[in-house]
Specification:
The complex is a heterotetramer. By secondary structure, chain B is an alpha/beta fold. Chain B has helices at about 1-15, 40-55, 65-75, 90-95, 120-130, 155-165, 180-190, 220-225, 245-250, 255-265, and strands spanning about 30-35, 55-65, 80-85, 95-110, 120, 145-150, 175-180, 195-200, 210, 230-240, 265-270. In chain B, strand 6, helix 6 (about 155-165) and strand 7 form a beta-alpha-beta unit. In chain B, helix 2 (about 40-55) packs across helix 10. Chain B starts with a helix and ends with a strand. The radius of gyration of chain C is 23 Å and the shape is globular. Chain C has a two-stranded antiparallel ribbon. The termini of chain C are far apart. In chain C, a hairpin with a 4-residue loop joins strand 1 (about 50-55) and strand 2. By secondary structure, chain D is of the alpha/beta class. Chain D has ten helices and ten strands. Chain D has a six-stranded mixed sheet with strand order 6-7-8-3-9-10, sandwiched between helices. The radius of gyration of chain D is 19 Å and the shape is globular. In chain D, about 45% of the residues are buried. Chains in contact: A-B, A-C, A-D, B-C, C-D. At the A-C interface, helix 1, helix 4, helix 5, helix 6 and helix 7 of A face helix 1, helix 2, helix 3, helix 4 and helix 5 of C. Chain C: Keywords: Cell membrane, Membrane, Phosphate transport, Transmembrane, Transmembrane helix, Transport. Chain C: It comes from Desulfovibrio subterraneus.
């Protein structure tokens, strides 16, 4: 009786373990073989001297440098907006006692998590139209609007990972903190949050990853094909994922297509290094809290 | 793109002494542009030259299609909204828009280069898009199912195509919808059974444009009137333009602007 | 002093919770508000009919709803077993070093931007699908479904793995004491104990699949017809929003965007409610 | 589980107690809460008519009780008898559990005066810095040995690093752990053995310089040798800190207890003092079984 089940699972396991890496390898293989050739200074700065391009003294029109800068500022602004409410709400859900409000909020967060990104973009768009009709007739699609909508998009990720990380801690840890004479806030600050830092940072990472790659939201709220370096939170901006989407459909010759591939490589590398950097940070922070030093 | 760059460079060298860009000296301001995808190369090149001379002027360019152009300029979200079609009287009345036609572009049916068919008629195209002709062999080609490609509802190219070639005839619901001229070209270039349509400025070696009712689709023929499936490209503003927006539009109509338009594959139109 | 900090903390966290709640209310409110004129206007309920042909004044978006559901369900049908397979591999069926590699791969995949999948698939998968299926243009339900299954896989797998890791740790010794191999412990003890987790992963994957815009927009062909075969070119609600938001703001085509948004929200609410009731019945059982 | 019948059973057991042995009555005289000089030893903690509820369930029922300085008070009883809850009333740890209500008086000797732990401490945290607690399983934090020690000193007491360093060493020496860990203070605390971990927890409490030590079955998860080490430690520590502990082992209880308290169903059933003679093992086992029959 047990044999068919095991056999079935084993087949699924081997199938999955072969198919998924293969598919991924094929996709990245295509990107690398077709894009690697175009990975050069010209891709980033479009013929403008690098230093002047980076400082914005000479605007870059044919390179992806403004898009890189745009994506980074968008990412920074989004996380700035989302971190506080996200983690705060997670803590609230994890630490407050059961009540109607808490159950309702939990459901709201689940709903928010399920809202498609294009709908979030649509929400940003309607909000903009509403703002223009009411209090801010000159409001336009901008970095700030896109960051707000992205922040809403990644908020539930932060909330639920923070909540899960805190709730999965052993109950004893609360008691240990209390028995040591630490107050509620101190126990949270010095024991519970550091103990769950791995999970929470994982959530932040996941959120940052989604914010960096999302295209549908910014497509409707402020990303454009050409804008130069971001000039402020109220201006339109370029972003890597949008640039890729745009280039995939708008390229005019073989070189532009090749640069499209190279751009996807750049975004891929950016996302992966974000991942690597964050897990490094995770380890460092954890070690600092633990006060553990490796002697060797 | 290197070709493009060198061209731009030679152009800017040869025109280094030209006056048009002087209009922007010492000025400041923002120009946001959105709309028709066919306009983008022209807008981009013009913006690039202006901002190279004067980085204090910020110009952003977004695509989206003619519909987006009308809507965003009408709502005041951008200063210049591009369309690949004339505005309807409704649109003009609703938003108080002013149009500037600056170029002529032909719209041509394109097929995969491997396709043996070299000539089509408007009637055939109409039947193909209505789903009545479904295989290339009915048109003298090899035995291969026809895959239809059309543009999204916001497209100015689609409007011209539907009006002048399909005579408002139906498009089968099974037709693939692609969101831009470039995406159309990509799809047709890859699919041996494809039929689609793009602005003539977008035609290159990756796709083939069969003759249409005997007319050869090319920019020369569009300019001299022997190819009739054409449209104008417009910049639209809400009310009369002023400040740097006006300077930008004026710049497009200078000889230097005309040069850019030609380099992008269109035929310049005088103001 | 300490008392104050506790108060400040309580207020801050409460406020964050409030912000989140209000945001959700605002999203629903705004979209319904903008969708309302479509129903009260001349169009009436024709928006919820089956034919999309703006040229003839037909604005039915039901084919798009069907397409959304079809694409998402097929992606789930493909991606969920794969995710489950990977998790089982990581937690017992495969040698540990391989498992660790796979886990790293999954983590890396979460950082893979959707648009990258789309871009690569246009040039790699679409020609293969066109030749392989022998019909259609390669831009199809099947193509979008395949790529989507890959997109939603890491999220599902990591959710499953998080649950399975804890359960496996708890039951490892029990299983061993009963004379089970690692594989048997997994199939007979861990998996049944994790079924809620597996269900939640499926709901999450479905939500992401039905909500994805770029993959269907780039790969599904966007033809507004009822899906009937894997090689059909179809248009999902999300792609519809992306395509049509561009049109004139007066037409019913424009209004249909907000109706599409509301439909997506409704699907989301339905999924959440179903998931909740399923999880609850699991509890009492 | 609990019914009214059971209550009566226990009531009868409690009232029957005087004729069972000649042990000292352990209930405090509630009328004289200001400290009774007539008692042979000074009072370290006193409970008076204490009731604890979790939701609708009453876990402690009218407890009156005293613990003395320079003495180990051991609580014994079957699981569910309320001994851990009783222990936790002294540092108000019960309040960390949802739905807990407490009534009655509880006092702890702080700086020479018996202080009401409910009215004098609006925030329980301040009380808990003065009443140390060690749990059944060693609850070392997942951090280094040193950090385990310094974390509460730094944040709960707000001490400066030099003071902390002195206290850490002193407490680790008191717990007999210094020689074993002094050269690996920055290693993860989880690398210590179970017995060492428990002594680390004890040291962590001692470093706070508490007025009293609470131990909740501190040797239940340890082997024999480790248990004996801890027991020996407690014997030394009781002169400086009054100790109240819950024990799962009658042998241990008889070895350590200066005062032995038998609990059942949320009440104190019997109470013995060492100078008046502790019962022998068999009697104790028998009595425990009797409480078992009632439950």
């Amino acid at each position: 009786m047990s044999r068919p089940a095991t056999y079935f699972v084993r087949t699924a396991v081997w199938g999955a373990a072969l198919i998924v890496p293969l598919a991924l390898a094929a996709l990245t293989g295509v990107l690398v073989t077709r894009g690697a050739g175009a990975l050069d200074a010209n891709l980033f700065f479009g013929g403008v001297p690098a230093l002047q391009a980076m400082t914005g003294r000479i605007p870059v029109w044919d390179g992806i440098w403004p898009a890189c800068a745009g994506t980074l500022s968008l990412l920074g602004l989004t996380m700035l907006l989302a971190l506080g409410p996200g983690i705060g709400c997670g803590i609230y859900l994890a630490t407050s006692t059961a009540s109607r409000a808490k159950a309702l909020l939990g459901f709201a967060v689940d709903l928010l998590a399920g809202i498609p990104s294009i709908v979030m973009g649509l929400f940003g768009f309607t909000m903009l139209l509403m703002l223009r009709r009411t209090i801010a007739p000159n409001a336009g699609a901008s970095l700030l609007l896109a960051a707000c909508c992205l922040a809403l998009l990644v908020l539930p990720v932060l909330v639920s990972t923070t909540r899960a990380a805190l709730e999965s801690l052993p109950r004893q840890l609360h008691l240990t903190g209390a028995a040591m004479g630490l107050g509620k806030w101190q126990t949270l600050r010095h024991i519970l949050l550091p103990s769950s830092a791995r999970g929470i940072l994982g959530g932040i990472l996941l959120a940052a990853g989604r914010a960096a790659e999302d295209t549908a939201v910014i497509m409707l709220t402020g990303a454009v094909a050409n804008a130069g370096l971001p000039a402020g939170v109220f201006s339109r901006f370029e972003a890597l994922p949008f640039t890729i989407f745009y280039r995939s459909s708008q390229y005019r010759d073989a070189l532009e297509l090749e640069q499209g591939f190279a751009t996807t490589l750049v975004l891929l590398v950016l996302s992966l290094s974000l991942l690597a950097g964050a897990s490094k940070l995770q380890r460092t922070l954890e070690q600092r809290w633990q006060g553990i030093r490796d002697d060797d | 793109m290197i070709v493009c760059l060198t061209m731009a460079m030679t152009l800017s060298v040869s025109l280094a002494s030209a006056a048009p860009l002087d209009a922007f000296k010492g000025k400041q301001g923002t120009v946001d542009i959105a709309g028709g995808t066919a306009h983008i190369p022209v807008m981009k090149e013009a913006a690039k030259r202006i901002m190279t001379v004067n980085p204090d002027i910020r110009i952003s360019i977004a695509g989206g299609g003619s519909g987006v152009g009308v809507q965003q300029v009408g709502e005041g979200l951008v200063q210049i909204g591009n369309t690949g079609r004339a505005l309807s009287s409704d649109e003009v009345a609703k938003y108080g828009l002013v149009s500037f036609a600056f170029a002529i572009d032909g719209v041509a049916v394109v097929i995969n280069p491997a396709n043996g068919v070299n000539a089509l008629t408007a009637a055939q195209v109409k039947d193909i898009y209505a789903g009545k002709i479904t295989n290339w062999k009915e048109l003298g080609g090899e035995d291969r199912a026809i895959s239809l490609y059309t543009r999204d509802e916001a497209s100015g190219t689609r409007e011209v195509f539907a009006k002048k070639l399909l005579a408002k005839g139906d498009v089968a619901p099974s037709a693939n919808v692609v969101p831009s001229n470039g995406a159309m070209k990509t799809a047709v270039a890859q699919d041996p059974g494809a039929i689609g349509y793009v602005g003539i400025g977008h035609i290159d070696s990756t796709v083939k444009a069969p003759t249409m009712d005997g007319m050869t689709p090319s920019q020369e023929n569009a300019a001299n009137g022997t190819y009739t499936i054409t449209r104008k490209l417009y910049m639209n503003t809400k009310g009369e333009p002023a400040g740097v927006v006006k300077d930008f539009i004026d710049y497009v109509f200078t000889p230097e602007g005309a040069e850019i338009i030609r380099a992008s594959g269109y035929i310049p139109v005088a103001k | 002093m300490r008392f104050d900090r506790n108060r400040i903390a309580d207020v801050t966290f409460g406020a964050s919770a409030l912000v989140t709640g209000l945001a959700v209310a605002a999203i629903f409110g705004f979209l319904f508000l903008f969708a309302l004129p479509v129903f009260t206007g001349g169009q009436g309920l024709s928006i919820l009919s089956g034919v999309w042909n703006p040229g003839r004044g037909q604005f039915g978006i039901l084919p798009m709803l069907a397409a959304s559901l079809c694409v998402a369900l097929s992606a789930l049908a493909l991606g969920w077993p794969l995710a489950l397979g990977l998790c089982c591999g990581i937690r017992g069926f495969l040698p540990r070093p391989v498992g660790r590699l796979l886990l790293m791969l999954l983590r890396g995949m979460t950082a893979f931007p959707t648009v990258v999948y789309g871009f690569a698939a246009i040039f790699l998968l679409v020609p293969i699908m066109r030749e392989g299926l022998g019909r259609g243009s390669g831009l199809s339900w099947a193509t979008a479904g395949l790529v989507l299954s890959l997109v939603i896989l890491p999220t599902m797998a990591l959710v499953m793995d998080a649950g399975m890791r804890q359960t496996e740790r708890r039951l490892r010794l029990t299983g061993a004491a009963l004379g089970f191999t690692r594989e048997q412990t997994l199939t007979h003890l861990v998996l049944p104990a994790c079924r809620k987790n597996l269900l939640a992963a499926a709901a999450l994957g479905f939500g992401r699949a039905i909500g994805d815009t770029l993959i269907p927009l780039m790969l599904a062909g966007n033809a507004p017809q009822w899906p009937s075969a894997a090689w059909d070119s179809i248009r999902t609600l999300t792609a519809h929003i992306g395509l049509v938001l561009a049109t004139d703001s007066n037409s019913a085509a424009y209004g249909s965007v907000f109706v599409a948004g509301c439909l997506l929200l409704l699907v989301n609410v339905t999924v959440q409610l179903c998931l909740r009731s399923l999880l609850r019945t699991g509890e009492t059982a | 589980m609990m019914t009214d019948t059971m209550h009566t059973e226990h009531d009868s057991g409690a009232t029957a107690s005087p004729d069972m042995t000649s042990g000292t009555a352990c209930s405090a005289e509630c009328g004289s809460l200001s400290g009774d000089s007539a008692l042979p030893q000074s009072v370290a903690a006193r409970l008076c008519d204490l009731n604890v509820f979790f939701g609708k369930r009453q876990v402690l029922n009218g407890i009156s009780f005293e613990a003395h300085n320079h003495a180990v008070t051991v609580l014994i009883g079957r699981s569910g008898s309320g001994k851990s809850t009783l222990l936790r009333t002294f540092n108000r740890l019960n309040e960390c559990f949802a739905g807990c209500r407490t009534s009655g008086h509880a006092q702890v000797l702080l700086e020479g005066t018996l202080t009401d732990i409910h009215t004098s401490f609006p925030e329980p945290a301040a009380l808990r810095t003065r009443v140390g607690m060690v749990f059944q399983t060693p609850d070392v934090l997942p951090v280094s040995i040193r950090r385990n020690m310094t974390l509460p000193l730094q944040h709960a007491l707000g001490l400066t690093p030099p003071v902390i360093a002195v206290r850490v060493e002193r407490a680790l020496r008191d717990a007999g752990l210094w020689d074993e860990v002094c050269d690996r203070l920055d290693a993860p605390a989880e690398t210590l053995s179970g017995g060492q971990q428990q002594r680390l927890c004890l040291a962590r409490s001692l470093a706070m310089r508490p007025a009293m030590l609470l131990l909740d079955e501190p040797t239940a998860s340890l082997d024999n040798v480790s248990s004996r080490t801890i027991e020996a430690l407690l014997g030394q520590l009781k002169d400086r800190y009054p100790v109240i502990m819950v024990s799962h082992s009658l042998g241990q209880a008889l070895r350590l207890a200066d005062r032995l308290v038998l609990m059942g169903s949320g009440r104190i059933l019997r109470c013995w003092d060492r100078q008046n003679g502790l019962p022998d093992m068999e009697t104790l086992e028998l009595m425990l079984e009797e409480t078992a029959c009632c439950e």
